[in-house]
Amino acid sequence: MTAGAVTPAPLNTLSVGTGGPRVAFLHGLFGQGRNWTQVAKALAGPDGSGARCTLVDLPDHGRSPWSTEFSFSAYADAVAATLRSIDPGARWMVVGHSLGGKTAMLLALQHPDLVARLVVVDIAPKSYGSLDRFSGYIAEMERLPLGSLANRADAEARFDEPDPGVKAFLLQNLRRDGDSWRWQANLGLFSADAAKGTGSLIADWPDTAGDLAPYEGPVLWVAGSESAYIADEDLPAMQALFPKVRQLTVKGASHWVHTDAPDVVVEALRRFVRPLADQS
Q1: Within its chain, how far is the Cα of 225 from the centroid?
Q2: How far is residue 86's CA from residue 18's CA, in Å, rounded to a whole number?
Q3: Is 97 in the same domain as 25?
Q4: Is residue 246 situated within a structural domain?
Q5: How far apart are the first and last CA of the chain?
Q6: Non-local CB neighbours of 212 within 8 Å, separated by 6+ positions
Q7: Are 214 and 267 within one domain?
Q8: Which residues contact 165 (CB under 8 A, 6 or more apart)?
Q9: Strand order across the beta sheet in which 13-16 lies
Q10: Of 120, 109, 50, 53, which is closest to residue 80 (Cα–Cα)?
């Protein structure tokens, strides 16, 4: 764990499914566990016996506690503690997208006994330089006058974002408490990290060399063909940490692979989790 980082208390989760292997889903920056609901319901199946899915709100997101500073290692420890509290001794298939994908990778490296299988969605174990791609979103969220909002429709009208999907995704973080509004996401923490430019911890990947052994379990690395988050030159670093990795590129999908191609992702997860189902 990064020096000085504080692991939040057990994280908020949502459960989908009643039987089968344990599967945990970790969302991306500004997301929430429930963003994976459609995929989790499909994986669990109509009678809920296909998988017992746990949709996790990462620290600083949704209804989970906030951190005093950002640390991927602390995020992974918080997820590990939460999963162990749900089912002590269980081994999980862990699915993580973007920020959640980096957290899932650290989880497998730091707690290999907990992770039976790993699915990393459209992210690589590398630095992405900075949070420039999110800076505009963060600035617009900070500009929203929380003290004078009349209702959610007023917030939507004042929020300047042309893409309706992005607007809805970001505004899911807006919550009303009585007569006041607040951001559920730890906007101050993310804003401060973005202001560091190339010093961003969220955009970075922690140096694990010499500290953690490679994860020897099966790993599925899912990429969107239209996404720029994974490049051919990322494969050696991925193989060094995860020797049993195999890659799946989803045609026509952007960074939001599970949103653009949910049926493809669900089928890939079904096949990947099957060995765990056969063992149960």
Answers
A1: 19
A2: 13
A3: yes
A4: yes
A5: 33
A6: 109, 110
A7: yes
A8: none
A9: 13-16, 52-56, 22-26, 92-97, 115-121, 219-224, 245-250
A10: 109
Distance CA 82, CA 76 (A): 10
Q: Give dist(CA 272, CA 278) in Å, integer.
A: 11
Strand, helix or coil at 177?
strand
What pTM was computed for the model?
A: 0.95
Range of the domain at 88: 13-126+205-279
Alpha helices in the chain (DSSP H): 37-44, 72-86, 99-110, 132-143, 152-158, 164-171, 187-194, 235-241, 257-260, 262-279
* Cα maximum dimension of the chain: 55
Task: Please list the ranges in the chain whose pLDDT falls under 50.
Answer: 1-4
Within a domain: residue 2? Answer: no
Compute and round to an integer the Cα radius of gyration of the chain.
18
Contact by Cβ (8 Å): 245, 273: no
Whole-number pLDDT of residue 208 = 83
Distance CA(227)–CA(206), nearest Å, equals 23
Q: 217 and 104 in one domain? A: yes
Give yes or no for a contact between 12 and 34, defined as CB atoms under 8 angstroms apart: no
Residue at token pair 């992005």: 166
User: For the segment 185-205, what is each residue's pLDDT rounded down to a tens digit?
Assistant: 999 999 999 999 999 999 999
Contact status, residue 51 vs residue 90, Cβ threshold 8 Å: no
Give ∠ CA 25-246-99 in degrees, rounded to 5. 35
